[in-house]
Target: Chymotrypsin-like protease CTRL-1
Amino acid sequence: VLKKLILVLSFTLTIGSRIVNGQNAISGSWPWQVSLQHPNGFHFCGGSLINENWVLTAAQCAVIQLSLLTVHSSFLYVQVITHPLYSRATFNNDIALLKLSSPVTLTPRISPVCLAPSTINILPGTRCFTTGWGRTTATTTSPEILQQTVVPIISPAVCRQIWGQSRITDAMICAGASVSNVCFPQGDSGGPLVCESSGVWTLVGSVSWERSTCDPRFPAVFASISQLRSWIDKTISSN
Model:
């Protein structure tokens, strides 16, 4: 049975998060951005279009009944594949792939993002972007305009000093501590963390978790695309 997803393309952490103190994104500027929505249109997670047949999101998002919708049309998904070693307790390997029932028609406003290779080396302090439609406060609804914010990459060593050695695994990447008072506390989980180099945008992380209260002193934690790249490639090639 085909299940309806909502895929919204265009242009924390707990299960669901929000970009607080972000900025409105220019329409169409993040053409891989996806919104996962309930059938009633309620946005609850983000995602990234990685090719015309697949969307990447968080495993924590994929366990919920989904609906996928683009700004231009709606789609059906036929398969949800979560990482076999995903832990609900620790959010380790917090990644999932959604296979669409038919290919997305790519346009300048709907196009996939490049995936970080397993060999990528992102220097701490690199300024990257994260985007999403998550609620900006605990009581508001999701914003109508996609939100964006710049966040610096935090080294694993510093991230472990802040969060504790055991909480940050090799399958995680951290970004965003103490920058512009930005945090991600309902609806941004699974969304993209992208970095630009020579005009090419690369997906380096997928929003996973942070403090349940908005505290910018603590970096947000993302699933590391480079560390999970081999699983992504193997899963797509075998399905």
Remarks:
- Residues 114-226 form a domain with the Thrombin, subunit H fold (CATH 2.40.10.10).
- The CA atoms of residues 83 and 95 lie 6 Å apart.
- The longest strand covers residues 200-209.
- The longest helix spans residues 225-237.
